Every structure is written in structure tokens, then in C-alpha cells.
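Exam prep: given the inputs below (a chain plus 2-acetamido-2-deoxy-beta-D-glucopyranose), describe the expected output before reading on.
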Amino acid sequence: MEKLSGILVGSVNILGNATLVYVNTTITDSAVLECSIQNKNITDWSNVRFYWQDNRDFVLYSYNEGRKMAEHVNDYYKHRVTAFPQDIIRGNISIIIKNLTLEDNERTFWAFAAVLDGSVMKKYHLEHTQICQVTLQIGVPYQNPRLDVNMKTMTAVCTTQGGFPAPEIQWVLLYTSSHQSVESRNIQTTTMQNYHDRLYSSRSTLLIPAGPHEAVSCLIHNPTLNTTMRATDTFSKGAGVTSSPECLISAAVFLLTALHWL
Ligand SMILES: *[C@@H]1O[C@H](CO)[C@@H](O)[C@H](O)[C@H]1NC(C)=O
Ligand SMILES: *[C@@H]1O[C@H](CO)[C@@H](O)[C@H](O)[C@H]1NC(C)=O
Ligand SMILES: *[C@@H]1O[C@H](CO)[C@@H](O)[C@H](O)[C@H]1NC(C)=O
Ligand SMILES: *[C@@H]1O[C@H](CO)[C@@H](O)[C@H](O)[C@H]1NC(C)=O
Ligand SMILES: *[C@@H]1O[C@H](CO)[C@@H](O)[C@H](O)[C@H]1NC(C)=O
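Solution:
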């Protein structure tokens, strides 16, 4: 079974009954580009004709005289796009695009329709009017982040790769059940994009500040898929974090010296 994961994100009315919609979807999944003709004057849908095209004027789907006009469809969309015949007869001209790739990211699609009124005059109710506009936003989920903590240098390093778009990285320090976010001056993040597959990898370093923290978490957020992955490292039990172990030793040495002089 094919997984269907179009998340309908938001819509704003433009041009009367035409709507502008964003759909966020995962790569390799499918997305439904929804569109319904809303016109009370139309009672007979048997003469509906419509087509969908993208912002390069490539035709995705073309329908006339009760059938798909495959010859008008661009090779790029051949075998990837189907309509819902049982819905077309109700004025619902939605289509589904399968096997989404990053090539489809940020692409906008428009539906145009015309309906013959059935009279001998061959008049149209709609004359290839733009009915709907949909923009796809494709995401690639990030792999589980990897977190390495070095208690000597008091640094934590979080790495992740293979996602799209660029991740949003957040650090939190945990103490019993409370969370504390970290000041940005203690964080250094570098993000790189692979030229070939367009996927991002990220490496973030946190200088762990002194405090009673028991654990540190790194959160990787994918803004398009609205998913967050977390990696957590629990410091050795009981030992809170002081500024650095070297400091602790010199303080102890100083204390011993001071005691000696008493
Ligand atoms: C319906 O038809 C009437 C009469 O022809 C016309 O004035 C009106 O604009 C039409 N409504 C729509 C939504 O097309
Ligand atoms: C879609 O992807 C699947 C799995 O990657 C593949 O088997 C299938 O041939 C693809 N279909 C099209 C139309 O590209
Ligand atoms: C139109 O058809 C699609 C595909 O079956 C469906 O997902 C959508 O809910 C329908 N929309 C309306 C307004 O009926
Ligand atoms: C859809 O993706 C865009 C671009 O990454 C993002 O700004 C938006 O918040 C996402 N919407 C949802 C519902 O996740
Ligand atoms: C992302 O998902 C959370 C719940 O997991 C939700 O509260 C939030 O509104 C979503 N963000 C967007 C932009 O849709």
C-alpha cells in the first residue's frame, strides 16, 4: 500500500473561489492536490474539462470528454499522477502525485477548468479559469542524532545528517524534572549541504556551563515535517557539573595549602 501523507497546511482565498494551499509531505510519499469546482450553476459535470500545470508550464494531468488525455502530459509527470474518476463527476478535480522527490519541493501547481453548459450554444460556465493553486513543500527526515559528551573539556557534540531542509538545533540541560535552554554564546553550529543530493548535515558543539545539570539533550527539528528527534546523555549519577575538573583540583590543593598554614 502506498502511504498517503499530505498535510494540509493552510489556505487563503484568492480570486473568489480559487484557493492557495501549502502541502507539506515526506520524500517518496504521495500528495493529494485538492481542488473542487464550486459553482451552483453547474448541475451536469459530464462536460467538464480540466488540466493541472506547474510553474514551468509542464502539464501534470489533462482531462476532456470523460477521459485522461495522456498525450498532453509532460514526461516528468507521466505515470506519477492520477485523478479520482468517482469524484470528477461531482466537480472534484483533485489529483494525486506519487514518488515525490526534492525536485518537487517548492513547486506550485495550478488547476484550470471549463464546463460546457450542455446547450446547443456550446457555452462554457467557466472558460479555463484558474480554480486552485497548491505549493508542495517536501521534507526528508533526519537520521537519529548522535551525541558525544566529553567531561574533561565539558563539551557536548551533536551530529545528524541526511535530512532536508536545514535542521533547527536546540540544546537543553536537564535537572531533575526541569528543563533549561542554553545561551546561544555557548553553542557553535555548522550546517553543510551536499551538492548532489541536496541533503544537509549538521554538527553542533555545546560548551556545558557550570550548574547542577544531570543530563544534556540535543533536539533536531525538521521545519517542513514538523518532527523533532532527540538524543540525551546522562552525566555520571550524583556528580553535578562544576566549571571544570582542573578547577576543582586546584581549589582542593589551595584548601590543603591553607590548612597547612593554620
Ligand atoms: C450563475 O448564472 C447567473 C445567470 O447566468 C450569473 O449571473 C451568475 O454569475 C452565475 N454564477 C456563477 C457562480 O457563475
Ligand atoms: C515509485 O517508487 C517505487 C519505489 O521506489 C518504484 O518501485 C516505482 O517504480 C516508482 N514509480 C514511478 C512511477 O516512478
Ligand atoms: C475530492 O476528492 C479527493 C480524492 O478522493 C478527496 O480527498 C477530497 O476530500 C475531495 N474533496 C471534496 C471537497 O470533496
Ligand atoms: C511546512 O513547511 C514550511 C517550510 O519548511 C514550514 O514553514 C511550515 O511550518 C510547515 N508547516 C507545518 C504544518 O508543519
Ligand atoms: C507542529 O506540531 C506540534 C505538535 O507536535 C503542534 O503543536 C504545532 O502547531 C505544529 N506546528 C505547525 C507549524 O503546524
